[in-house]
Amino acid sequence: SPLRVATNAMSRRATLAAALGIDRGRLLAEIAAREGKTLAPETVGDAPVQEVVIAADALDVARDVPQVLHSERDAGAYISAGIFLARHPETGVYNASWNRTQVVGGSRMRVRMMPPQHLGQYQAAAEAADKPLPAAIVIGAPPALMLAAASKIPYESDELAVAGAWQGAPLRVVPAKTVPLLVPADAEMVIEGEIAPKLREDEGPFGEFMDAYVEVGRNHVFRTTAITRRRDAIYHVILAGGTEDLALLSLMLQTEVFKAVSPHARVADVGCPGQILGCVVAIEKTDDAQAKAAMRAAVAAHRWMKFVVVVYADVDPHDAEDVLWAIHTRFS
Questions:
Q1: Strand, coil or helix: 219
Q2: CA 325 to CA 327: how far, in whole Å?
Q3: d(CA 258, CA 185)
Q4: What's the pLDDT band for 127 if we cut at 50, 70, 90?
Q5: Less crowded by CB within 10 Å, the N or C end of the chain?
């Protein structure tokens, strides 16, 4: 491919904090405070993401999108760092979500999506009316939109407006060329198209974030209507289950835990060392009842939670060795 490829761009807590203009020590508290706020996007005329436009009759996704094979048994090239943007067919509210997308060829790709995921609910509503769902795949999105796409924002919230609030400035957007959507003007690449109704094709295998393969399944078909990008676009890829994937996913889960535990104890920090199906909560304990209350609240914070460890604030919840040391020396 003539395009450059980049990965591990957002793999550190310090990088995520800097991208939002937030002090690292205040990251969870600030995200939690901004989560309920919105800032409407700003439509602009200058859009770096539309410097190059490839129309439907000239495109081939197998040629115009870099072909990256992530794991040995993957069914082929996948878009792994693509954020799907879509509007609810009735309310017009924007949803942003990460979805793996298998590159097929011509205008055709296959995407994994289903309820209860919000995008899956949008598609189900469109499909019930026997209509396609217009969508755009954003690659190299502004960091605030990356995090909004990984968050547990309520179904009725507009994620373009939430991303603006998180970055402290309106998200710059531009009308897409072939679908009725606004897309980030400063992204690296946007793949425009629609998700076909009542059409499924075999998708997979794919090496997913749990370090195991998802085998072949019947999934949705995405028909590409245009590709737009910067002249010098950098194609972003994320290894499922790698450092960057877990950093983006875990930050939003940590925020949910922070909000759930805060009424019960002063939270110093929350970490997810190793994976995202459990967490470590560091608290500034003032009485003996707080640890158990914090543990119960953290377990209930999201449905993926399998274990919770509560430690004193002098233990680094992101360092598995430090956490294990605390368990060995302080647990009784």
A1: strand
A2: 5
A3: 32
A4: very high
A5: C
At 31, list the tokens: 């995200």
What Rg do the C-alpha atoms of the chain give, in angstroms?
A: 20
Size of the chain in residues: 332
pLDDT of residue 126: 95
C-alpha triplet 102, 107, 112: angle, nearest 5°:
30
Residue whose entry in the numeric block shows the structure tokens 């990984």: 150
C-beta of residue 104 within 8 angstroms of C-beta of residue 61:
yes
Q: Give the 3-state secondary structure of 15-45.
A: HHHHHHCCCHHHHHHHHHHHCCCCCCCEECC
User: What is the pLDDT averaged over residues 186-194?
Assistant: 98
Q: State the pLDDT at residue 180.
A: 97
What is the per-residue pLDDT for 157? 85
Confirm if 240 and 81 have CB atoms less than 8 A apart. Answer: no
SS3 content of the chain, % helix, strand, coil (to 5): 30, 30, 40
**Interatomic CA distance for residues 49 and 187, integer angstroms:** 6
Alpha-carbon distance of 220 to 97, in angstroms, equals 15
Confidence band for 268, pLDDT divided at 50, 70 and 90? very high
User: If you write DSSP's letter for every residue of 281-323 in order, what string do you get?
Assistant: EEEE-SSTHHHHHHHHHHHTS-TT--EEEEEETTS-TT-HHHH
Residue with tokens 């407006």: 161
Whether pLDDT at 79 is above 90: yes
Q: Has residue 265 got a pLDDT over 80? A: yes
For 5, counting Cβ atoms within 10 Å of its Cβ (0-12 exposed, 13-18 middle, 19+ buried), the class is exposed
Over 90: is that where the pLDDT of 35 sits? Answer: no
67-89: b (≥16 Cβ within 10 Å) or e:
ebebeeebbebbbbbbbbbbbbb
- Cα separation, 90 vs 121, in Å, equals 12
Please give the pLDDT value at position 117: 84
Q: Are strands 234-236 and 4-6 parallel, antiparallel or unpaired?
A: parallel
Residue 138 and residue 176 in contact, taking contact as beta carbons nearer than 8 Å: no
Backbone angles phi, psi at 50, to 5 degrees: -115, 20
